[in-house]
Known about the structure:
The complex is a heterodimer of chains A (about 290) and B (about 325). Chain A is an all-alpha fold and about 290 residues long. Chain A has a single domain (about 70-290), classed as MetI-like (MetI-like fold, Orthogonal Bundle). Chain A contains 13 helices and no strands. Chain A has helices at about 15-45, 70-75, 80-110, 115-125, 130-145, 150-155, 160-175, 180-185, 190-200, 205-220, 220-225, 235-240, 250-290. In chain A, helix 2 packs across helix 13. Chain B has two domains: about 1-55, no CATH class; about 75-310, MetI-like (MetI-like fold). Chain B has a two-stranded antiparallel sheet with strand order 1-2. In chain B, helix 4 packs antiparallel against helix 5 and helix 8 crosses helix 10. Chain B is globular and about 75 Å long.
Amino acid sequence: MLKAPAAQPKASLTPRRLASWALLRLALLLFIALWAAPTIWMYSTALKPEGQVLKYPPEWLPSTTTLENFQLVFANFPILRWYLNDVITACSATVLVLITGSLAGYAFARIPFRFKEVIFYGIMLALLVPPEVTFIPLFLGFSEIGLANTYAGLFLPLVPSAFALFLFRDFFEQLPKDLEDAARVDGAGRFGVYWRIVLPLSTPVLVAVAILTFMTSWNNFMWPLIIASSDDTKTLPVGMNQFAPSFSTVAAVGYGLGMAGTSIIATPALLVFFLLSRQFMRGVSFTGLKG
Amino acid sequence: MESEARLGAVAHAGTQTAAIKPRTRPRTELAGYAFVAPYLIFWVLFLFAPVVYGFWISFHEWDIIGEPKWVGLQNYLDALTTPEFWNYMRNTILFAVLSVPALTVLGLAFALLVNQRSAKTMTTIARLAFFAPYVIMVTAMGTLWRWIFDTNFGVINYYIGLLGFNRIGWLSDKNIAMVSVVIATTWWLVGYGMVIFLAALQDIPEELYEAGKLDGANTPQLFWHITLPAVRPAAVFVIISSMVGALRVFGQPYQITGGGPEGVTQSVVMYIYLEGFQFFHLGYASAVAYLLFVVTLIFTVVQLKLLRRSPAA
């Protein structure tokens, strides 16, 4: 029984509208609380002194706060080094992907050359291959040439990202050709066009690929676990793995410490995210729309 | 200038086409190869070569100290006849079956929730709240949830106790452990799906809904006939990428449960890791990796076929 609704007067506050207004906000509130709760609990636990961590009933706002967990973590584990390793690796990978990916992407989009199609689809086949298949051979190969446990070993495998190449090519293909044609007619070579015309227009895709690569490297757990064996090179996820409380004990000390460590890891990332949230989410949605 | 000359030539030739045809067939510019070379070098060295090498290793028995010994298909046969392999494969598929719908449905639900035009402040906060966990790395997330799920002192069990129920062995009960891992994973990753769906939702022109309402459609009908078809591509992307990621899951079970209790949450990739890098059964681990590759391929192809077939548009 459908009635064509008449044009709604804007300010009518029918019970139905009130209900949906309230329902929406209630739902939002509920889920925001649910989603933020674990993180809040993490900070809450980290700030509690040893004896208080297991206190029953659990307190969301610790009655006594202490920084001793954080101090212990910093004192006993080379967190800053791990952070540095992670940043260096992620930055190196990102820079290399941006350079190689954009160059290749531009070529595939605009430059005619023999076997172009074959090469491109060959590269795209890589999308089907799970990286785990490459871990053992990469480990063996790197060990043999002495690159095991080095930064290079950490970031090199991340550079040939088929997805990044796909994003670049797609973006460049969609750029209007006029500017490029004009520049070529004026005598600019391919690289000149790339460097002076195309790249400056490519901010969205550069940002998206940068975020994608950085996050992939930053969060990478299994590969660094395999290839980085000393504290000097371990990245954050791997290093952190060390002081997570063991599975079999209900180590109260462990959890306060563990949460402090988790907070140390999570906080900078969260801060950066909150500052750059719009770019972040835009970059992610960009990758999704093209996928 | 070059282009003007060409224009002139074409005009004189009296062709009808609007486009300017190149004088010769597409030239090969060497620049193309130069541009592609850096990428290709990395690709060959760090992707193609390892894949081939890994394939070769899977036909050998090797424990890193001795020489590799050719065993043909023995590794594959061993894997396919070991109950552990099927056990972990089952776990991994269970994880995928549980997490993919959760991430997709909840991702879409959240996207719809935060796409409302009213409640601007709350929806902005909501977007941040839902996406933020995604930037926390897996080790941190895993340790956090291990603490939350703790049977005796975890915060969830406390509230359950308040409500009068018995404590749940989130990580110690064989039947629930995988669900717990899925819950943690959903909290962690839903933001990604939400963002993708949000972008798709915002692409839907408002006029479609207006027209629909004028035609007398109510909200569920608008949703079914306008919203769902519009987010279909996004949904395909989210489903497939979540599924591929789920089949490769490693960090979450490794951190939250260590594969326990009694191996119920151990994934195939964790198996590869343990076999390859703790026991150094390199050939065997490689073979398992390739088997996983095949499984992933099959799942992806099947999913694409199922999802691409459009219902009556």
